[in-house]
Design a protein that fits this description.
With 323 residues, the chain is an alpha+beta fold. 34% of the residues lie in helices and 24% in strands. Bound molecules: D-MYO-inositol-1-phosphate (IPD) and magnesium ion (2 copies).
Length: 323
């Protein structure tokens, strides 16, 4: 059974203007009101993976507003998943939500935070919005209908020559040796190409929108989640860019690996020098780079990737502290 995607999408699109006005404007106000305030911060999967009550509040607000209108639709929301919901993407109409992308920025009042909402049917993203709250920029795209920022059409830079590229990436939340050494050696190898520069804004969604709006020529990252980039991946491709797996292969929303670029040539240039560290997929399926029996070097020793997939022995629960 497949949903009649065009009918579902048409219905949702007809209401989308209202949803946007309602859900996003309230969510925006909640984020802006809380931005300057002192936050109660909890940790999730690592000491650098933060969450606040505002993340949870905005997600609840968006989900309950959408549920009222579409009670049968499914949700993959960052904070619902953190609370135990399953992040498996099915063919059902599904809203993929990151209530605050850039929570570390939000906690530190570094002024780049976004709300990211994508809508997928039959596992295909039909439309997406990224609202960059402090900049008051609303990026949006609908499949086959182009990408816009505050209603102005977007085009990537179209750059082909990687030596002239400004590349965006993220530091992410992993703090183990293998992830950190891969991250820093990737940056080293890119700078040695040489490229013009590397930036990290602190929100994957905005990073990708910068590629869509020609403020940057490429973005790559391993370790972000589907809710960070579902909307912005569509925004990049609708703005004329390309979106690939970190290896240069086909992009897979649930794989936690991405290159978004102004052109195929720039994407290929990045894929040739960057490496991925093992990263458990959002849907829990086996990672392409973690075939059974494969080995990875960690802390100077070769260990089985099966071992790497075991739950960590460090505390992964929620710890409350104030910032
Ligand atoms: O947690 P969050 O602030 O929604 O999302 C994070 C941001 O996108 C950050 O830029 C990226 O480096 C992390 O991997 C994401 O988890
Ligand atoms: Mg995020
Ligand atoms: Mg978030």
């Amino acid at each position: 059974f497949h949903f009649d995607s065009s009918r579902t999408v048409c219905t949702v699109m007809a209401d989308w203007g209202k949803c946007l006005d309602f859900g996003v404007s309230i969510a925006r106000q909640v984020v802006l009101d809380a931005f300057e305030a002192q936050k109660v911060v909890s940790l999730k999967t690592s000491p650098a993976d933060l969450v606040t009550e505002t993340d949870q509040g905005v997600e609840n607000l968006l989900i309950s507003a959408i549920k009222e209108k579409y009670p049968t639709h499914k949700f993959i929301g960052e904070e619902s998943v953190a609370a135990g919901a399953s992040p498996v993407l099915t063919d059902s109409p599904t809203w993929i939500i990151d209530p605050i992308d850039g929570t570390t920025n939000f906690v530190h009042r570094f002024p780049f935070v976004a709300i990211s909402i994508a809508f997928a049917v039959n596992k295909q993203t039909e439309f997406g919005i990224v609202y960059s709250c402090m900049e008051d920029k609303l990026y949006r795209a609908q499949r086959g209908k182009g990408a816009f920022c505050n209603d102005i059409p977007l085009r990537t830079s179209g750059l082909e020559d990687i030596t002239k590229a400004l590349v965006v990436t993220e530091i992410g939340t992993e703090r183990d040796d293998l992830s950190l050494s891969t991250l820093t050696s990737n940056i080293y190898r890119l700078l040695k190409i040489p490229i013009h520069g590397i930036r990290a804004v602190g929100t994957a969604a905005v990073d990708m929108c910068l590629v869509a709006s020609a403020g940057a020529d490429a973005y790559y990252h391993v370790g972000m989640h589907c809710w960070d980039i579902a909307a912005s991946a569509l925004i990049v491709s609708e703005a004329g860019g390309v979106v690939h797996d970190i290896s240069g292969g086909k992009f897979d929303l649930m794989s936690r690996r991405v290159i978004a670029a102004s052109s195929r040539t720039v994407a290929r240039g990045i894929a040739q020098v960057v490496e991925a560290f093992p990263c458990e997929r959002d849907d829990g399926l086996p990672d392409a780079d973690q075939a059974i029996g494969a080995l990875t070097q960690r802390d100077g020793h070769w260990v089985s990737n099966d071992f790497l997939k075991l739950p960590c022995d460090k505390p992964c629960g929620i710890v409350i502290e104030s910032v």
